């Protein structure tokens, strides 16, 4: 069949009408995912075209997936973080939604408290068990959208649910119909899609969801869940691991619009950020993230990373307030007691710190030489140096200028710099092998009459 595409302004060949393949045995892609070996990344050289949407945005799962790997947040903590998400997202609401559990009284109170703030963005959405009673709860709480788990791979359908594909699809469609009847906008979480039979189950199921949505007049969203982080961003990678192929296929074979697609990635293979950006580039409007990447196992895509990625891809922050990222990180450490690894990009205490004297020399001459961007302005985190064996006079002078600006400026040939350098050298001559802490340096400064 040949159809003229008004989106692409060309004749498109539509050879296939994808139908459910109700296979008698599960397709587990055993060669691609041999359990006693590292998964195989295979290629078929089928290249999907870049097709970024007019609008892209971020959605948040800090209070849902982000709570599945840590102690629950208190209501006060959720409200405080929700306020920060609102400020970070800016006036255009680029952090479009935030997803909440609805089970416990604490969960419900958090939703009510956040609703009282009256923000348009992030829109509060729910995540529930797939039952009519729970949909009624969503409606009664005043939420317009709710997530529904619809496991997509045969690992889940056959081995966990103990069903056939046909049975699973019928059950899923029945639950979605219940949501539509109540007036709740369903967001279907295609769990484990990067191990699912894309043409034999995913596309036929998505087509049926599209039909239900059109009949109800309520577009159904699909969250493309890379549950175990198997997705790869490589051009020409074969399905079902290809992120370009998954997004292109859902757009072009299942007829979904960009705003109906949301990527949800995990970081098991260190690809959460690049896979999320790839989903944007190939046609999904939404990427689902959590603050600091906190989530199951290795975690989700870090929300703060995608704020920076947005600016790289679009050339603007579009009003997002990136200084809030520092506030969020400080709040996690100070109030929640979460220890952020020091070298974590954008939020770790030492993400823009150097120990090398030659790097400190570059920073003093022109900060742009060794700093990724103006982190002082954009992240409220000026570059710093750590004093160790290789810091040298320049590194010590830089540290003094950062920490004692009223006593400076300090040059590397300043007698006070030399005095502190001699003290540092003696530390390592006596057998020290670790960096010197801020507290130790300040004590030495006072002891040596530098300040």
Description:
Helices cover 38% and strands 12% of the residues. With 451 residues, the protein is α/β, with parallel strands linked by helices. The strands form three sheets. It has an eight-stranded parallel barrel, surrounded by six helices. A two-stranded antiparallel sheet has the order 1-2. The termini are far apart.
Compile the SSE list and pairings:
Elements: E1 2-5, E2 10-13, E3 57-60, H1 75-89, E4 95-101, H2 105-116, E5 123-127, H3 132-140, E6 145-149, H4 154-157, H5 165-182, E7 185-190, H6 198-216, E8 221-226, H7 243-252, E9 261-265, H8 272-281, E10 286-289, H9 303-314, H10 323-336, E11 353-354, H11 357-365, H12 375-378, E12 384-385, H13 392-403, H14 415-429, H15 438-447
Parallel strand pairs: 3-4, 3-10, 4-5, 5-6, 6-7, 7-8, 8-9, 9-10, 11-12
Antiparallel strand pairs: 1-2
The gist of it:
The chain has 15 helices and twelve strands. It has helices spanning 75-89, 105-116, 132-140, 154-157, 165-182, 198-216, 243-252, 272-281, 303-314, 323-336, 357-365, 375-378, 392-403, 415-429, 438-447; strands at 2-5, 10-13, 57-60, 95-101, 123-127, 145-149, 185-190, 221-226, 261-265, 286-289, 353-354, 384-385.
Shape: elongated
Summed up, the helix count is: 15
C-alpha Rg (nearest Å):
26 Å
* Percentage of residues in DSSP E strands: 5-15%
Number of strands: 12
Low-confidence stretches: none
Sum up the structure in keywords.
451 residues; alpha/beta; eight-stranded parallel beta barrel; 15 helices
